């Protein structure tokens, strides 16, 4: 079982600026947890980096998560766009579905998981 403990560091807070997103990888094996953290209106949110449409990672090339205007998260495979706060798809092939959210908080200079994560249960394997 691939478990991540509460308190696991997701990223350094200094890597985040308002409106921007940062990718991360946690865990081991062929199926680690790939996620993204975004700061939106001063709040930090984290989501699994896996699109509900066809399971692709959102950022391709890696590290590019936003629409050109920076207002929404974008899956570059087929153009689904997601609200930064809720992870809800607001346009595209999976409208109404959501990115899976991760519980995180700012602790000192880090963004950390606030609950244990079972990576095997959270990541959908499409192949
Ligand atoms: S896999 Fe994301 S829009 Fe198709």
Give the name of the CATH superfamily.
Rieske [2Fe-2S] iron-sulphur domain
**Main beta sheet:** 4 strands, antiparallel
Helical fraction equals under 10%
Note the quaternary state here: single chain
Number of strands: 12
CATH class: Mainly Beta
Do you know the CATH architecture? 3-layer Sandwich
Lateral arrangement of strands in the main beta sheet: 3-4-5-9
Beta fraction: 35-45%
Q: What is the rounded distance between the termini?
A: 19 Å
Q: Regions with pLDDT < 50 over 5+ consecutive residues?
A: none
Q: Please name the CATH topology.
A: Rieske Iron-sulfur Protein
* Shape verdict: globular
Series of H and E elements: EEEEEEEEEEEEH
Report on the architecture of this protein:
The chain is mostly beta strands. The chain has a single domain, classed as Rieske Iron-sulfur Protein. The protein is built from one helix and twelve strands, in the order ββββββββββββα. A four-stranded antiparallel sheet has the order 3-4-5-9, with no helix packed on it. Strands 2-11-10 form a three-stranded antiparallel sheet, with no helix packed on it. The two termini are 19 Å apart. It binds FE2/S2 (inorganic) cluster. FE2/S2 (inorganic) cluster binds next to loops.
């Amino acid at each position: 079982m691939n478990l991540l403990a509460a308190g696991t560091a997701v990223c350094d807070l200094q890597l985040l600026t308002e409106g921007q997103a940062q990718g991360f990888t946690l865990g081991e094996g062929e199926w680690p947890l790939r996620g993204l953290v975004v700061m939106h209106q001063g709040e930090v949110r984290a989501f699994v980096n896996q699109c509900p449409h066809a399971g692709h990672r959102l950022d391709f090339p890696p590290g590019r998560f936003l629409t050109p205007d920076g207002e929404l998260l974008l899956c570059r495979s087929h153009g689904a766009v997601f609200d930064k706060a809720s992870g809800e798809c607001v346009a595209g092939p999976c409208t109404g579905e959501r990115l899976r959210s991760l519980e995180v908080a700012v602790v000192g200079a880090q963004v950390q998981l606030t609950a244990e994560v079972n990576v095997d249960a959270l990541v959908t394997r499409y192949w």
